[in-house]
Amino acid sequence: MKPLRYVINLWSSFGTVAIISKVWEKYFINKYRFRLNCNRIVPEFPIRQKPYDFLHNTKSFIQDKPINICYLIHCFFPDKNGGTEQFVLNLAKEQQRLGNHVRILTLGNHELKFYSKQYKDIFFNDFQFEGLDVTQFRYRHIPRGYYYDEIYNNEPNMAAFAAMYLDKYKVNLVHAVYPQPFATFLGVCLKQCIPYVITTTDFNIICHYATLVDKRGQFCKHSRKGERCEECCKTYGLKDPRTRYHRASDLLQRAEFVTAPSEFVARVLESEFQQVSVTVVPHGISSVFSCFKKREQTKRFSYVGILSELKGVHLLISVFMRLDDSRLSLDIYGDGEQNYINRLKNMAENDSRIKFHGGVSSSHIVKVYQNSDCVVIPSLWFETYNFVLREALACGCLVIASNIGAMPEPIYEGENGFLFTPGNDEELFQKLQASLHFNWSLYRTSSFPVPKQEGERYALIYAHALKSKTKEFSEDVSK
Questions:
Q1: 230-255 pLDDT, tens digit each
Q2: Which domains does the chain have, with CATH numbers?
């Protein structure tokens, strides 16, 4: 889409005030929130009492009969290809392999003429992506704060669309991987006795910024049921943070299962929503990510992922340039906002060792890891899983990562990587130097669940969710 048409489309979709609000948030508030010269204190979340997990006691999965599964996600391929999108892609393919019927419902923001169908005030298209049935939809005029800020539990257009969609495709079970924009949809599921599962891959269910980083750049430990959100730069898109909190809590409590990809996310959710029990199901890492040769020295550093402020790429470049060794290299793979990319390139323009490669295809990413010695992940926020970290470890790389969120979980300090305080340039410099002297003969290899195992674990969750909802429905009928 050409720039002018793109701006016109955004304006017609969101409205003038919403666009001004988002520009202010992105280019002024966020620049301050993710600044380098900020002394951030990483909070500790309580260790949870792990509930009984039936998943660990099942050695194999036997599918009784096919079910019709609908996945709900805010963005999907080919428009966006982040970690959450990859999770849904892998999981949907595994469910198809198990014999289930799968559909993916996702938001879009193309021009109205891009969509060939309309129901009420919702425009949509059906298409296929890598053998999966996908429906992408958009509103004529998007409700205020719909994508991230507000949680609408009774939006009439979505309610009508959901009833039509669930009936047309005879959906048995819904898996919401980004539940906030689909609160009304999930409400319709409840009315029709269709069970739903929720997976949280970031913290938007708690924080309308999704990062748990407040307007001062400090990490947030608890929303205090939305009270603290009122103090944290309430945006145009969010009218009442306390109402948002209670709607989020209701969504989670009504789910048959709430899952998370890491123990850290489970701890945060259970600390915030104390009536919710979370099941941890790690994302599957494809077996193509493997170590084909052992390194002997650390010379080739890489960054792989989105180029944005909260990923801390600017910190990595500034610290790497302090390493005085012409034999070293830093390869940066990824796309992002052009203004930020230009800033990074300006920082690195006098250092020929730093190269920008743009986005990398899924078919090439394995070679990127295998040609790297050390992958650096300098995130400034609570990463909830991070595919790059685990893929790099599976390929035999050292990993240097911020000591925050779920990233420490697979790292053994000094054995397969190093951790540093997020945003601390001196600590990162020390860890880069430590990696240069790493004894590769002592490297500790890593292994992770593969997508097949992840898919079978979710199939078990679906089976239990359906059984529970059927029992509940039978009890209601008998009363």
A1: 888 667 788 899 999 999 999 999 99
A2: 3-51+66-284+455-475 (3.40.50.2000), 300-442 (3.40.50.2000)
